UniProtKB/TrEMBL annotation:
Belongs to the RutC family. It comes from Leuconostoc carnosum (strain JB16). GO terms for molecular function: deaminase activity. It comes from the Bacteria. This is Endoribonuclease L-PSP. SUPFAM superfamilies: YjgF-like. InterPro entries: RidA, RidA_CS, RutC-like_sf, YjgF/YER057c/UK114.
């Protein structure tokens, strides 16, 4: 088993003692991302829509750094400060994956939590896996 830290300046730096992502063999675990612009370290806006779009940009940058793609995503965890925003995020989520040649959407969970870091509206964590050769 090989374990490697994945980090890029094109996504927000970790807000605490954790890594942006860890790759173990052919699996990439991306820590929860919130809607922070990596250049300013501030939220891109106050709305869930604005933050969701930035989150997916941040995820794309981490995937790229690790040489993974959206098509490699197998699981997504969505954490809302208000689950009434589910439909808004679901539409953005669907469009995010429509641009990918995937056979099926990733497995997913979506929950409302009491609070998120820096009072974010949304946080998304990802697990991606490259196919193994037989």
């Amino acid at each position: 088993m090989s374990k490697q830290v994945v980090s890029t300046t094109q996504a927000p730096k970790a807000l605490g003692p954790y890594s942006q992502a860890i790759q173990v063999d052919n699996t990439l675990y991306i820590s929860g991302q919130i809607g922070i612009d990596p250049q300013t370290n501030e939220f891109v806006g106050e709305t869930t829509t604005q933050q969701a779009h930035q989150i997916f940009e941040n995820i794309d940058e981490i995937l790229h750094e690790a040489e993974f793609s959206r098509a490699d995503i197998v699981k997504a965890g969505l954490f809302f400060d208000d689950l009434s925003d589910f439909t808004i995020v679901n539409d953005i989520y669907e469009k995010y994956f429509e641009t990918t040649s995937i056979e099926a959407f990733p497995a997913r969970s979506a929950v409302q939590v009491a609070a998120l870091p820096k009072k974010a509206k949304l946080e998304i964590e990802i697990v991606a896996m490259k196919p193994t050769t037989k």
